[in-house]
């Protein structure tokens, strides 16, 4: 299988590329710079879609970039880096004389309204309620293929939670304070913490790319990219501290995160959703890391 990956040089993209190559597939990455096994976004716009059996978009500015202040310029980059690249890929697929059999977009669980009690599956209805949910709405809307193309190309949307792994993602900024013994729950700690190990997210995407007997539809198949075991921020924090043999007695107040990150961004950490991978499990996907203890042991090497 030949797979085209937008944003393939990022944290999840590297893991997905490695997995697909291990399975014997051929991978081409769309990147800002050309190179072996790569094309640029400008190449895609001018030359059209290269021959491929599956296409994935993972491109997007890091929403938790600690080097960027939360302002209008940054918010604009968050939207354009996701919506514009998705639109470019969708248009290239629609214009191709031989479109891929599967088109996968990876977005996020920010579409679901934070709640301590409500459980969300892929079938849950939702409407935008804040900046990040509006981003998901525009992002997923940009991926929609024309009806004619959708007759031959299966559309899939994967909505991951916090992506955990050794080489990037959410853990990259968490580990340092924990090593120094100053890690602790964020805000109240009661908020749900939807999460997934990066290997499992790559596995879900690869699973979605496989040919299927299911007929394509004009609506995308949604898969929640989260682990089947739910935890709160407090439970996650205590387990990470236990595995690292570090104390977790210093909570981080919500107002401090609001000041540091901006209120609209801090909600990612101070609020959460109970997200269930109902359709992901029904699809037959098997998790490597279904519980937080196993995932954290692999990540911190304990």
Low-pLDDT sequence parts: none
Q: Tell me the number of helical segments per DSSP (H or I, 4 or more residues long).
A: 12
The gross shape turns out to be globular
- The H/E string reads EHEEHEHEEHHEEEHEHEHHHEHH
Number of strands: 12
Strand percentage, roughly? Answer: 15-25%
Rg over C-alpha atoms, rounded to the nearest angstrom: 19 Å
Main sheet record: 7 strands, parallel
Average pLDDT value?
96
The first-to-last residue Cα distance is 36 Å
The percentage helix is: 40-55%
What is the SS-derived class?
alpha/beta
Strand order of the largest sheet: 3-2-1-4-5-7-11
Write a brief structural summary.
40% of the residues lie in helices and 16% in strands. The protein is α/β, with parallel strands linked by helices and 302 residues long.
